[in-house]
Amino acid sequence: MPLEPKPADIPKISGALRLYRVSSIITGVFLLLLCVEVFLKFVLQLELEVNGPNGFLALVDRGTVTAFNLSTGILIVHGWLYVLYLFSDFQLWSLMRWSFPRFLLIALGGIIPTLSFFLEVRVDREVTAFLASREAAGTGTGTGTGAAAATEQARS
């Protein structure tokens, strides 16, 4: 039998869901940019250079970057965004009291291209339905329709 969130944690779930949704979309976009960068670098042997001698944004031969290397920048930014994604995954996972394999599946969303977009929709739907059912049963946060309204406002 799966565990249910603790009653004291229910008010925190909508904020954790909002952070997860934002971080999953941003991390997914940067993962796709990283895939493009890897294709450019290893297949076409090109890198992106910013504000160099070839103009503001230029494709140059691999290893000849003399200004800011946007390819490396995308890699670094995605890495740090993935840390935020893991944090938001962990926060939502622990509040919802899901199984550990579920945490690992959601964590894969920041590694497998486009998976974060599909998981974001699925997780959002499930958590929103849980919050709505708690609200309908009258066992929500004790603020009447506050949790449902906050969840609906977060979706907007």
UniProtKB/TrEMBL annotation:
<feature type="transmembrane region" description="Helical">
    <location>
        <begin position="64"/>
        <end position="87"/>
    </location>
</feature>
<feature type="transmembrane region" description="Helical">
    <location>
        <begin position="99"/>
        <end position="119"/>
    </location>
</feature>
<feature type="domain" description="DUF3817">
    <location>
        <begin position="17"/>
        <end position="125"/>
    </location>
</feature>
<keyword id="KW-0472">Membrane</keyword>
<keyword id="KW-1003">Cell membrane</keyword>
<dbReference type="InterPro" id="IPR023845">
    <property type="entry name" value="DUF3817_TM"/>
</dbReference>
<protein>
    <submittedName>
        <fullName>DUF3817 domain-containing protein</fullName>
    </submittedName>
</protein>
<feature type="transmembrane region" description="Helical">
    <location>
        <begin position="20"/>
        <end position="44"/>
    </location>
</feature>
<dbReference type="GO" id="GO:0005886">
    <property type="term" value="C:plasma membrane"/>
</dbReference>
<keyword id="KW-1133">Transmembrane helix</keyword>
<keyword id="KW-0812">Transmembrane</keyword>
<dbReference type="Pfam" id="PF12823">
    <property type="entry name" value="DUF3817"/>
</dbReference>
